[in-house]
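SEQUENCE AND FOLD
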Amino acid sequence: MTDKNRKRNFWLIWSIMTVISFFALFVGVRYVLGKGVTPYNVVAYLVFSLIAGGIAAVLYRFRFIFANSCFLLGIFIGFLEMYRAFWSNLSGWEDLAGFMMLFLWIGIGLSLGALIQLGNYAYRKFRYRDREP
């Protein structure tokens, strides 16, 4: 893949990930949780979505396939767990528990992806150390 295509895909992944995570947060709070959304909430959702999209795009740009896959899986599981917490009856704590689950799974996905990527790097480094580049 050429560098021009990777640059175009970088921005495409960033924008798609930002839009998906923003709408997942907005729908989760507004319709699943049933709370009102203020302009401050929208700004917070947008900032979170831009950061999540940026992380996914940077992982793609540097070709960290394992880390990107684990990160995206962590986001997906995190949103599912957030929705599950919103639907459960936790005596008024469902919003906090839902967001904590979202951030927990994103952290797990990113950390696990980084460990797997590091293990893959170490394996390739020691496996092919005798070959000339």
Observations:
- The radius of gyration is 18 Å.
- DSSP finds four helices and no strands in the chain.
